[in-house]
Amino acid sequence: MMSASSSSSSSNPMSREDATLLPSIDDKYGGVRTEMTHPMDPSLFSSLLRASLSNWTLQGKKGVWIKLPKHLIGLAESAVKEGFWFHHAEKDYLMLAYWIPKDVHTLPANASHRVRIGAYVINHNKEVLVVQEKTGQFQGQGIWKFPTGVVNEGEDIHDGSVREVKEETGVDTEFVQILAFRQTHKTFFEKSDLFFVCMLKPLSLEINAQESEIEAAQWMPWEEYTKQPFVQKHELLRYMTDICSAKTDGGYEGSTPIRVSAPDQQGAPDQQGNLYYNTRDLHSRH
Amino acid sequence: MMSASSSSSSSNPMSREDATLLPSIDDKYGGVRTEMTHPMDPSLFSSLLRASLSNWTLQGKKGVWIKLPKHLIGLAESAVKEGFWFHHAEKDYLMLAYWIPKDVHTLPANASHRVRIGAYVINHNKEVLVVQEKTGQFQGQGIWKFPTGVVNEGEDIHDGSVREVKEETGVDTEFVQILAFRQTHKTFFEKSDLFFVCMLKPLSLEINAQESEIEAAQWMPWEEYTKQPFVQKHELLRYMTDICSAKTDGGYEGSTPIRVSAPDQQGAPDQQGNLYYNTRDLHSRH
């Protein structure tokens, strides 16, 4: 058996020609990836996996990834018995990982943070856009708060803030800047949370509260918002109102995004991303 | 069978008294959590799970969590057949989730971002702390770059930056502020990346480069660092050098952390966290 027989050409990325090895593709980092798509007897999977691992070892491969869709989770036990661990999981699949060399693995860490936004939207009458939520801690307490939400997978923070405001209140907005952000830990299981306070400029005023999540939404005089006992009570909210006031009154500068390309950490072509920084302070120098 | 028999009292959180139901504890959000710890025949697990789901449904429970340690992954197939999906996985366990009500679930999203730091450490001679890495894209190319690293699970960003600099170079530092941050997507699989550029003040000068990851480390004159073709070539690095220069020359303000408590989004007691904001602009108003 040729040691290269399990590696695929780019025209045939998941070759099954050699039935004694698992189909795999080489990754860019000296490792291999296998994605199981069809049911297989677990004992057959075990023997193919063992043969494949021997083969990958001979080839000097490092990391091994096995992606198991939900309906093939019955194969996971075989991989665990060969020393695989869980790298991450999404709704429909589990990703298992293994490191062939004897040294410490250099596989990327699993995602550790959720990203959320809170939206500060104030109109020309110094009224702030606030909502009462149907679920969660604050339901039924008459507390008016900024629209908040989770940034979707793959979504830019600023896009997420505009989308959440639109979904919850029907108000169109333009992103201005990130005023502050907060990191907390163990917000759910072992995961952490990054919460970005975004300032947005309203482009429309009419409110259409989202039925599923929002009890009520309104434009509320800023002073009235800040006087709520709920806002006064919590340290974070007092800071947030101070920062928002400082922004509206002028003089406070947060972080504004610009689109920049950057070298990929894994050696891929330059990546596009958003760099958020204090544009006023930087550009005032030029 | 009493419908309450699967719920535990706080003194006996994982009661096994009733062998026809899975042990579970109520969570704070109207759901239940089951953590499997001992091997069980998959067909027994299936029948216990079905009985438990009926029971939880009668009780009006919403979310159901099943945590399976790696060595019990053989039970996952039974849960998938009952309609469970994967919520997340860590090295040693898979968390499965299920939503009993007919409406859209309100379970928290899986973590979507990794958090990394880059450290700008400059001494009184205007020399910047730079490293050459042993692995990755830049190995063997003679490129000097800022120390970078992944923030650990549960670690504050500023603590992560101080730790990474110490690990990679042996230099002790004090965190100053976050100068800028960048969000990129699909940096590994579907996950996103938040990269925080941190300024740190050196507290020691002697360098002890980390053997496993770092080829070399040195204090390099700032001008020499910025003149590297690698730095000149990449848009992100040009911005970063401009921002770092603006910080050192004075006038540029980033985000400084303060410890604040905040209302927990899930209704738990107030959480401690770090709020990062432009302290200069806020405090200059007072």
UniProtKB/TrEMBL annotation, chains A, B:
Gene: LOC104724600
Record keywords: Hydrolase, Magnesium, Metal-binding
Alphabetical list of PROSITE patterns matching this protein: NUDIX
Name of the protein described by the UniProt record: Nudix hydrolase
Family as reported in the entry's similarity comment: Belongs to the Nudix hydrolase family.
Any single Pfam family the record assigns to this protein: Nudix_hydro
Cofactor(s) essential for the protein: Mg(2+)
One of the record's GO molecular function terms: hydrolase activity
Function noted in UniProt: Mediates the hydrolysis of some nucleoside diphosphate derivatives, possibly using both NADH and ADP-ribose as substrates.
Reaction catalysis annotation: ADP-D-ribose + H2O = D-ribose 5-phosphate + AMP + 2 H(+); NAD(+) + H2O = beta-nicotinamide D-ribonucleotide + AMP + 2 H(+); NADH + H2O = reduced beta-nicotinamide D-ribonucleotide + AMP + 2 H(+)
Domain of life (superkingdom): Eukaryota
EC number: 3.6.1.13, 3.6.1.22
